[in-house]
Design goal:
Number of strands: 5
Number of helices: 1
Oligomer: single chain
Largest sheet: 3 strands, antiparallel
Low-confidence stretches: none
Order of helices and strands: EEEEHE
Strand content: 35-45%
Strand order of the largest sheet: 4-1-5
Structural class: alpha+beta
Number of domains: 1
Distance between the termini: 32 Å
Length: 72
């Protein structure tokens, strides 16, 4: 079975501008491939051990065609 590619993201968290003003945004946790979402997420956590220490309310998963950058 071919591995699928997944992008993991969360709406938990925020970013801060140069003036210290917070903005809610989408945080990209990373990309990983696997036979299914669970296998891909376990690979992502193995590559980024800090993910195991973080708590997210919701993680969104998107199956993607490629990890190659495309510009529009």
């Amino acid at each position: 079975m071919d591995n699928k590619k997944f992008l993991f993201a969360t709406l938990d968290g925020y970013t801060e501008d140069m003036q210290g003003i917070e903005t809610q945004n989408c945080q990209i946790l990373g990309c990983a491939s696997g036979r299914n979402i669970r296998e891909a997420f376990l690979k992502l956590r193995a590559e980024d051990e800090s993910l195991a220490d973080r708590k997210f309310e919701t993680v969104f998963v998107y199956e993607v065609v490629s990890f190659e950058e495309q510009f529009v």
